[in-house]
């Protein structure tokens, strides 16, 4: 059936017929099939077939019948710019301050095209028109005037002009024209067909005559239940992943040469990203690696916005940089762009520069800041960067002038070339090369807009260029790849066998045939889809003329005709749908009820078909392969001498040996974006410093009580907080922000001192004073926030905490809070406690040798539940000894080079900044949120 259908159109082309298609994809498909037929029939040569979309053929006819003074076709870019300008300058909208959405011009342009295609001369009597229709009528009138003034015609007028040329005999016509893939004949198309027939040209339709509607019973083939397999899945991801593995099974089972598979998706825009991700992972596993330039073994008909391509996004980000400082995240993206570095060494130097700006908490930086920092570094790799930055800064000197788009296009191109934007020390991949060509084409289109935009600023030029890139669809051109790339895993593909996989929307599938089809997302919300009439044309007019998407009945008819065509395009089918879309339950399309009850599609992992994705292979290897551990690398004397981190070394080693090794021996640090204002760490530091200043002045409970009784406590708190904030006023922060933080800290400290007033008499012996401690061969500095001495000589170690705190971090087997314990290595203490400075309730959290040493803190003897977690501890001396042993062991492990990825709990991973380095989540122990797998 399929071959006979193709034979008919191929023979027509052989006999000189012109084939006019519904879209470019069908034209390309028929051209390929025609050439294949000529090759298989051993033809030595043949005439180039005329197979093209209808508007392309109409344009060629117009060019053949060129007349002096006839208007030329307006380009899409010019048309878009003209519609935008007309709407922006609409005085009625400006007078009434109406808010117009960004996409209004697109809907208006679409309405204009529909009016032309359906031969609608007028919207109707103005008395019956709404505000939208009146606005569109006004805009259309201005658009027509502008076209006439500029000497252009819109594409919507093209067919009408060609019809007149055909009728007057100005055009040389073929003997036969085949209209391919059209499911509907619009009034304009019908007029074109009549003009051709009246001129003596035979007109045929392929693969069949257009059908406006069908009975639901006529949609499915008679043997639907035998030919069509219906499945449902719990999610769209499971559905897509199952389809990808099905493609591999099909390719392995079909041994008769070339296999052609169609994946047809009614709502392709919603599925596109999932399909790209899952199909690439399963069908081209190596393509997910950033250094591999591997073409997809499938073609997807729906492209993406050109602005989404990294090369173009990078160019626009560069052009958007002005003379003033920009947000650090934006400038960081420029510094780290792979399209700007001339060498790998230069890229590393720029990354280091970016990290320095972020660590110094710059919120905004400018080109001059970067240039100065790069020049100040004695780094050969940055000399080229300094020169390019000088060129960039100079280019911005004329940024405020007004000029035509052609001037800005040349200026932008020159700057990007000077900066080495697409050189980057790397050769371009196939996708990047095609992106570059599309960018150059876009720049040329932009340069030609001067007669519409007039003089514009640099900022406006960049904004327009970005908008054009967002509107321009980029579709990478691929060649059919051999199936070797999808052969591993479930079912091997025989050598030399080729497979073509096409992922299409319903419209794009028109006229094409396949060996196998998977109809994906065939749920009741997509087939038929919802009506979406154009907002600028009265709905009644759209209904009467039968415009697309105008009514539910129109959508039902379109879905029925499309499904009938699809089921005539292959012998073997799978129909699938998810059980849920965005939290809403959906069912099988009512148009497909004749296929029988849907089977529950198993998750791909349950089908017995092994995944071929690199991720699955990695996890399988982790579970099955036993790799020997590397030998430990002990801490050298040189490393020990330069070791930084203090008690944090012990904390990190206890929580995860790998983290301690990576941070303190490899120097690995995450670079985080600075926050606007004060971050949590800075706020905690301010509280610490305020209390340090306060107790240095007050000295103990006696003076604290005096200040309280004399009413001077508030002033002392204010003075201490003021000293803590002194350095922050010098930073690039608003004064009011620092003042507000001061008010917050004063209130917090005042509340905390009410707790201190409840204590037995004490003296503050030291605050924030470091003391060298040697343990397990490791010499570090212990620096408790505060050491108090009670009247009886007992010593209390206190650590301020503005976040969550618990004494479970002192359990010898889980030493996650070793700071205060390390102080006890050199000198004993009688109580340790966190001063929990967290609202709504501040309190002491700790453990003591005897009761009554701190408010709310129990003695070890009375902390039964906590003490029972420590085996063999009966009294305070036992606890001190166990702490020493635990600290000694942790320190010895670090010195010995213990570096296993062995987090003490999921909390150790939840806030860790290095999971990408240890790859803990790929091991399947914890989920990416830090929770244990299976919980």
TrEMBL record:
Q: Where are the transmembrane segments?
A: none
Q: Which SUPFAM superfamilies does UniProt cross-reference here? A: P-loop containing nucleoside triphosphate hydrolases
Give the PD-(D/E)XK endonuclease-like domain ranges.
650-919
This one is known as PD-(D/E)XK endonuclease-like domain-containing protein
Q: Which organism does this sequence originate in?
A: hydrothermal vent metagenome
């Amino acid at each position: 059936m399929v071959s006979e259908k193709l034979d008919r159109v191929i023979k027509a082309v052989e006999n000189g017929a012109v084939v006019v298609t519904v879209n470019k994809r069908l034209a390309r498909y028929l051209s390929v099939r025609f050439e294949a037929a000529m090759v298989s029939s051993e033809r030595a040569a043949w005439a180039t077939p005329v197979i093209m979309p209808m508007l392309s053929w109409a344009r060629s006819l117009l060019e053949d019948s060129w007349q002096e003074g006839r208007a030329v076709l307006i380009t899409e870019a010019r048309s878009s710019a003209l519609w935008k300008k007309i709407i922006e300058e609409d005085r009625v909208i400006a007078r009434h301050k109406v808010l117009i959405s960004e996409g209004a011009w697109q809907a208006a342009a679409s309405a204009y095209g529909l009016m032309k295609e359906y031969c609608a001369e007028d919207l109707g009597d103005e008395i019956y028109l709404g505000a939208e229709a009146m606005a569109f009528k006004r805009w259309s009138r201005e658009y027509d005037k502008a076209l006439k003034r500029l000497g252009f015609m819109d594409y919507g007028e093209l067919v009408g002009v060609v019809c007149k040329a055909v009728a007057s005999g100005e055009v040389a016509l073929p003997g036969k024209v085949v209209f391919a893939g059209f499911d509907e004949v619009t009034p304009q198309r019908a007029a074109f067909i009549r003009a051709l027939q009246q001129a003596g040209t035979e007109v045929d339709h392929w693969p069949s005559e257009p059908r406006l509607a069908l009975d639901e019973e006529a949609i499915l083939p008679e043997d639907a239940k035998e030919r069509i397999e219906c499945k449902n899945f719990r999610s769209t991801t499971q559905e897509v992943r199952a389809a990808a593995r099905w493609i591999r099974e099909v390719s392995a089972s079909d041994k008769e040469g070339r296999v052609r598979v169609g994946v047809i998706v009614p709502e392709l825009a919603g599925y596109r990203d999932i399909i790209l991700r899952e199909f690439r992972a399963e069908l081209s596993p190596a393509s997910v690696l950033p250094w591999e330039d591997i073409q997809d073994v499938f073609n997807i008909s729906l492209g993406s916005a050109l602005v989404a391509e990294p090369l173009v996004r990078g160019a626009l980000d560069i052009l958007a940089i002005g003379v003033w400082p920009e947000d650090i995240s934006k400038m960081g993206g420029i510094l780290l762009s792979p399209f700007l570095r001339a060498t790998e060494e230069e890229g590393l130097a720029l990354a280091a520069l970016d990290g320095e700006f972020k660590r110094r908490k710059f919120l905004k930086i400018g080109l001059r800041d970067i240039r100065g920092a790069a020049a100040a570094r004695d780094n050969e790799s940055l000399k080229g960067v300094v020169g390019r930055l000088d060129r960039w800064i100079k280019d911005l000197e004329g940024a405020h002038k007004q000029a035509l788009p052609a001037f800005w296009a040349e200026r932008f191109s020159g700057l990007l070339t000077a900066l080495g934007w697409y050189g980057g020390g790397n050769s371009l991949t196939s996708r990047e090369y095609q992106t570059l060509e599309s960018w150059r084409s876009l720049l040329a289109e932009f340069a030609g807009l001067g007669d519409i935009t007039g003089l514009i600023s640099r900022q406006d030029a960049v904004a327009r260029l970005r908008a054009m890139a967002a509107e321009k669809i980029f579709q990478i051109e691929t060649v059919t790849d051999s199936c070797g790339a999808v052969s591993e895993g479930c079912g091997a593909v025989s050598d030399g066998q080729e497979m073509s996989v096409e992922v299409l929307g319903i419209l794009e599938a028109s006229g094409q045939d396949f060996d196998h089809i998977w109809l994906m997302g065939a749920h009741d919300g997509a087939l038929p889809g919802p009506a979406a009439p154009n907002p600028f044309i009265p709905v009644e007019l759209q209904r009467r003329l039968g415009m697309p998407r105008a009514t539910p009945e129109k959508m039902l008819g379109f879905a029925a005709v499309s499904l009938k065509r699809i089921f005539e395009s292959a012998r073997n089918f799978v129909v699938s749908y998810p059980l849920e879309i965005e939290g809403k339950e959906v069912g099988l399309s009512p148009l497909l009820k004749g296929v029988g009850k849907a089977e529950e599609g198993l998750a791909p992992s349950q089908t017995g078909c092994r995944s071929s994705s690199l991720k699955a292979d990695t996890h399988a290897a982790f579970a099955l392969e036993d790799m020997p551990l590397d030998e430990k690398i002990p801490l050298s004397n040189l490393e020990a001498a330069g070791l930084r981190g203090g008690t944090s070394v012990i904390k990190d080693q206890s929580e995860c040996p790998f983290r301690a090794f990576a941070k303190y021996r490899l120097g690995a640090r995450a670079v985080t974006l600075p926050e606007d204002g004060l971050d949590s760490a800075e706020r905690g530091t301010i509280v610490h410093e305020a209390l340090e200043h306060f107790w240095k002045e007050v000295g103990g409970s006696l003076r604290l009580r005096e200040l309280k009784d004399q009413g001077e406590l508030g002033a002392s708190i204010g003075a201490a907080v003021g000293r803590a904030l002194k350095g922050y006023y010098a930073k690039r922060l608003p004064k009011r922000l620092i003042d507000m933080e001061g008010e917050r800290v004063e209130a917090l400290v005042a509340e905390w001192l009410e707790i201190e007033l409840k204590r037995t008499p004490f003296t503050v012996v030291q605050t924030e004073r470091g003391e060298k401690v040697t343990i397990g061969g490791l010499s570090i500095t212990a620096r408790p926030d505060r050491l108090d001495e009670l009247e009886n000589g007992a010593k209390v170690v206190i650590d301020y905490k503005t976040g969550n705190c618990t004494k479970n971090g002192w359990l010898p087997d889980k030493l996650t809070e070793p700071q205060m314990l390390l102080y006890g290595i050199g000198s004993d203490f009688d109580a340790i406690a966190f001063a929990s400075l967290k609202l709504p309730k501040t309190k002491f959290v700790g453990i003591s040798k005897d009761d009554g040493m701190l408010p709310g803190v129990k003695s070890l003897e009375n902390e039964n539940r906590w003490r029972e977690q420590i085996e063999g501890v009966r009294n305070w001396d036992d606890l001190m000894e166990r702490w020493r042993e635990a600290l000694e062991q942790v320190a010895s492990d670090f010195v010995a080079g213990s570096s296993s990825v062995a987090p003490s709990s999921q909390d150790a991973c939840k806030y860790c900044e290095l999971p990408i380095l240890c790859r803990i989540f790929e091991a399947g122990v914890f989920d990416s949120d830090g929770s244990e797998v299976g919980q």
